[in-house]
Design a protein that fits this description.
The chain has one domain: PknH-like extracellular domain (Protein Transport Mog1p, Chain A), CATH 3.40.1000. About 35% of the residues lie in helices and about 30% in strands. A 7-stranded antiparallel sheet has the order 1-2-3-7-6-5-4. The chain is globular and about 40 Å long.
Length: about 180
């Protein structure tokens, strides 16, 4: 009987260790949050414009049929925690955005809402003059083994409204991964 208990405990510990090492995995599709499901955006007519899946990466883009606003979400599944942390730093979209928009074109903004992501930031891209409002917002985050990037283009969108969108996206991703 004692051997059976020890074997059960050891098997249980192995499962726990495996879960901690591998992290919780989910189908990439389950982590997508289409804009039509976000309360602040659901009144619009969103159409999926493009989708790309390559290996452990999935990108979908939706376009608002009326205003032509764009909502793009990319998710990358990393093989482990170390590679996910490295990927968050190495694949930071601000690197390319600073090349495309110039150093002054990337305006970092405090998130303003609590999120459950392990790492996260938001910023806006200035497509015009410095004193114009942002029209393209970015949320870059890491949830365990996944890095998530959202680009949302809506002229005149302010930081508070984008933060509310981020809060909804964060809650949905967290619910899938819990």
């Amino acid at each position: 009987m004692a051997a059976l208990v020890v074997a059960t405990v050891l098997a249980g510990a192995a499962v726990v260790v495996h879960r901690l090492q591998a992290g919780h995995r989910a189908p990439l599709d389950a982590l997508l949050v289409p804009p039509s499901t976000i309360d602040l955006l659901s009144g619009e007519q969103w159409q999926e414009d493009s989708a790309r899946a390559v290996g452990g990466e999935l990108t979908r883009q939706w376009v608002n049929a009326r205003s032509r606003d764009r909502f793009v979400q990319s998710i990358i599944e990393h093989s482990g925690g170390i590679t996910a942390r490295y990927g968050y730093s190495a694949e930071d979209p601000r690197i390319n955005d600073r090349e495309d928009f110039g150093p002054e074109g990337v305006r970092e903004t405090p998130l303003g809402v609590p999120v459950s992501a392990d790492q996260s930031l938001i910023y806006c891209l200035l497509t015009g003059r410095q004193n114009e409002p942002c029209s393209l917002w970015v949320y870059w985050s890491r949830y365990g083994l996944y890095t998530v990037k959202i680009y949302y283009r809506e002229p005149g969108l302010d930081a508070a409204r984008f933060a509310e969108i981020v809060k909804i996206v964060d809650a949905r991703i967290s619910a899938v991964l819990d």
